[in-house]
Fold:
Amino acid sequence: MSSAMIDLILQATLDTLYMVAVSGLISTLVGLPLGVMLYVTRPRQILAKPVLNQVLSIITNVGRSIPFIILMVAIIPFTRMLVGTSIGINAASVPLTIAAIPFVARLVEAALNEISPGLIEAAQAMGATPWQIIRKVLIPEARGGIMTGLTITVVTLVSYSAMAGAVGGGGLGDLGIRYGYNRFNPTIMLITVVILVVMVQGFQSLGDYLVRKSDRK
Amino acid sequence: MIELSNVSKTYFSNNKGSGANAVHALKNATLSVPKGTIHGVIGLSGAGKSTLIRCVNLLERPTSGSVTVDGQEMTQLSNAALNRARHRIGMIFQHFNLLTTRTVFDNVALPLELMGQKRHTVRDRVIPLLEMVGLADKANQYPAQLSGGQKQRVAIARALASKPQVLLCDEATSALDPQTTSSILELLRDINHQLGITILLITHEMEVVKSICHRVSLISDGELVEDAEVGDFFTAPRTQLGREFLNDFLQLTPPKELIERLLDAPGENTHPVVRLTFSGDAVSTPLISRLARECGVDVSILQAKVESIQERTLGLMIAELLGSPTQTQQAMHYLESHQLQVEVLGHVQRND
Structure:
């Protein structure tokens, strides 16, 4: 294999990591509070706001139901407004983030569902404010579940980022399609797949480790 | 210290609040717990015990009525004032409700953190509490590493961290085995004794009431149907439900083969079978032999038990009174005049 080819693979790997990191980070920053909101605004919860809860829930569901490939094309004007271009890894990170936010939110909400209602009741009996309950009870107690959810999100982002080629996003998936599939180069195809497998394995192991560390049950 | 007056709680299964689907969990409950006492509320599951205790610190907001703790009307407080008031009310639960991700130390420290206390103040408060509940050596362990009894001790230390004047116990020993139960009850009694904390507890176990309560209320179908000193309740419950609880606790029921022979009404050749409850002086009086001498009635004892409840002795007996109808009638009057409770369980056919 030529050194140019190796450079190409290396660059594609970095591009994939970049897209996953940016979209993973931002979607966590937005999705985590959204997931908490979805949970605490439910009827009979600590900040019960049934109407707001319904609105958030519908928005989240809409976000989750649009196929990624359609979302990516549909929000091109928004992407251009945000990062100034509609091609490249920065541009691809926008739809990845938008797709991941509701995903993270639902996984966070699911993790919070696992907390025994007795813990919230105990905190209320101690005179905790809703914000104190979120910070000192809900988030720490759900940390293991949230870590599991974020691991799933990152792994999903790795596979979604492979579709980023559709908007000239670059990355391993793009390389595999263009060189491996379109130019009949099975070696490149195999290498990109192997790198993706290793990457997913790595993220999963790291996630499992973090879950173990934060779970005391 | 705790005053509930005409507290009702109604749940509506739909949001419209129409009467059709209303569940009356608590009906006009009135209860007064003086400072420094231990008050028990006993009842079957679903009777409204949980709702009652949750109305004290407003985990459940009463539909109507007033709740006063330490002279403060709880139902009128703003959210912030309610949280401050809750710092003065500790609570422990059946399933402990400890935070799994916090160590024993950090669990006990939580109420102090919530009050915004400084780290060294927290430390000075938590360590003596852990020593008091006998878990100083477990400070850095996690709840998952503890036994049920140890978890409840941590929960007790946590409940006491904010120096409350009132401790609410929600079925605190129901998930524990008998030995652990008695050690937890002993701890609660010590706390009440040493710190003068007023304790309100709910339970379905007579054992709990017997061993630590001063007063007891009986709750049935959302209503407080009986309220008595524990000694009185165990010797002479006023309601049918109270008697059922007592008999169940004492396990003094007639033998099975006797129940099968028991007739509701007296017949030609029948003897009454009675349950006698005697307390106070009656325990030390040789009433049975006097019965034989003075009324000419022989007594065949089928079952007997003596219990000691808070320095009072309670005797129970199931006996057959052998004699003519007039004699046995006279004998029962005689016993009642000596402060015995006589309950006729039925009549049995004479064997001879």
